[in-house]
From TrEMBL:
UniProt-listed SUPFAM superfamilies: Proton glutamate symport protein (SSF118215)
Kinase is among the record's keywords: no
Superkingdom of origin: Bacteria
Higher taxonomy: Bacteria, Pseudomonadati, Pseudomonadota, Gammaproteobacteria, Oceanospirillales
Organism: Endozoicomonas lisbonensis
Full protein name: Na+/H+-dicarboxylate symporter
Membrane topology, from the record: Multi-pass membrane protein
Length: 414
């Protein structure tokens, strides 16, 4: 009953968003001043609400995820290997996304870059930029919308929690997990306004629409996102497998049922039971490895999300006139990787985190609403690729442990 209800709800939500976008095309074309005024009020309220939950989403999601891991001194060989491959594949995915983005440069296609009012940015030195990452008070990042400062605080807090005793660690993990759940409940209230916001944003977009070159930039952006996902899934991850002597095609065939579930459900978590079963029974992964690695990877290994966050944030920011230095572009590889690792449990995962970053940076979110109709397919693809990455990490961990003889010793001890 629940699965069927959720499926019908997702279909209904998508249909409602498409209907809202279609209505926005009509009302935007009519260009009625009274309707435009209403739309401006709606978009202002929606952006304010997104800003309200933006940094708390980033902060609490990361702490809730990291504080649930094993203690710093208690991470054993298996957990260390899982995290090693998770960090490596996620970082490579973000780096490849940056390479594709700078190559295609979608924000400067046609007249897209000049379609929105630019923002005057303060010119600061690299040293001052690095210093700005470290806030002078705990509330400063949230007051100033300092994304890097919030990430720094989250990582510092997570490291402190992991170094505490088990009782304190469990208590604080439950606290931050509950706070994250509360923020996400607030976010779910905001998301109920999404169809109304889509109608308002599309109406204003069509009203201001002057040049079809704007759509060219959006098309190039979508190509960047799809290429980043395809290259990560079809080239980079198979190369990782081959480097460990694992046949990529055999691994893909073994995990195909789980990938199918992830694709159509748009959820890595929904595919977890099938993924564990496929890894253990079809791929031949040791049961202990499959039951430990897959759940952990489902929570923290989000290759496709890292690529989407990086490309989307840079595209929307630069389309609004914001320019990034080389150091800032490179820093987004790290930011997107960290954000993707802390993405577990976020509704509309990558999309909401990207919106949260942009809202925290005070960037106009009009383009995000135009990306939304395409996100349904992107979300399906990303969910499948995330599970595929989880499968590759699990297979590589199993291979390393087998080669080191650690699995045999564990089985003997048990």
């Amino acid at each position: 009953m629940c699965d069927r209800c959720n499926r019908h709800y997702r279909i209904g939500s998508t249909a409602l968003l498409l209907l809202a976008a279609a209505l926005g095309l009509v009302t935007g074309w009519l260009d009625v001043p009274a309707i435009n005024g209403i739309c401006e009020v709606i978009t202002d309220i929606f952006i304010r609400l997104l800003k309200l939950v933006s940094l708390p989403i980033i902060f609490f999601s990361l702490i809730a995820t990291l504080s649930g891991m094993s203690g710093m001194g208690d991470v054993k060989a298996m957990g260390g290997k899982v995290l090693k491959f998770t960090l490596l594949t996620t970082f490579v995915a973000a780096a490849m996304a940056l390479l594709l983005y700078t190559s295609f440069d979608p924000a400067h296609q046609g007249s897209l870059a000049g379609s929105y009012s630019g923002q005057d940015l303060e010119v600061i030195s690299y040293w001052n930029y690095l210093l700005s990452i470290i806030p002078s008070s705990f509330i400063e990042p949230f007051y100033n919308g300092n994304v890097m400062g919030a990430l720094f605080l989250a990582l510092l807090m997570s490291a402190a929690i992991l170094s505490l005793g088990q009782d304190h660690k469990d208590s604080l993990h439950k606290l931050f997990d509950s706070l994250f759940a509360a923020v996400m409940k607030m976010t779910s209230f905001v998301l109920k306004l999404m169809p109304l916001a889509v109608w308002a944003f599309v109406t204003l977009f069509v009203r201001d629409f002057q040049n079809q070159d704007m759509l060219q930039g959006l098309a190039v952006y979508l190509i960047c996102v799809l290429l980043a996902n395809v290259i990560q899934a079809g080239v980079i991850l198979p190369l990782f497998l081959k480097s460990k002597g694992i046949p990529p095609v055999k691994t893909l065939r073994a995990m195909w049922p789980a990938l199918t579930i992830a694709f159509f459900s748009k959820s890595s978590s929904a595919a977890l039971p099938s993924a564990v079963e496929c890894a253990e029974k079809r791929l031949g992964v040791n049961g202990k490895v499959a039951r430990f690695s897959m759940p952990l990877c489902i929570s923290v290994n989000m290759n496709a999300c890292a690529a989407f966050i990086l490309i989307t944030v840079l595209f929307v920011s630069q389309s609004n006139g914001i320019q990034f230095s080389t150091l800032e572009l490179l820093s987004w590889v790290l930011i997107a990787s960290i954000a993707a690792i802390g993405n577990a449990g976020v509704p509309m995962g990558c999309y909401m985190l990207s919106s949260a970053f942009l809202a925290a940076m005070n960037v106009d979110l009009q383009l995000m609403l135009l990306i939304l109709p395409f996100y349904s397919f992107i979300d399906m693809l990303e969910s499948a690729i995330n599970v595929w990455s989880d499968s590759c990490v699990t297979a590589m961990v199993n291979q390393e442990l087998e080669q080191a003889g650690e699995l045999a010793s564990e089985q003997t001890e048990s």
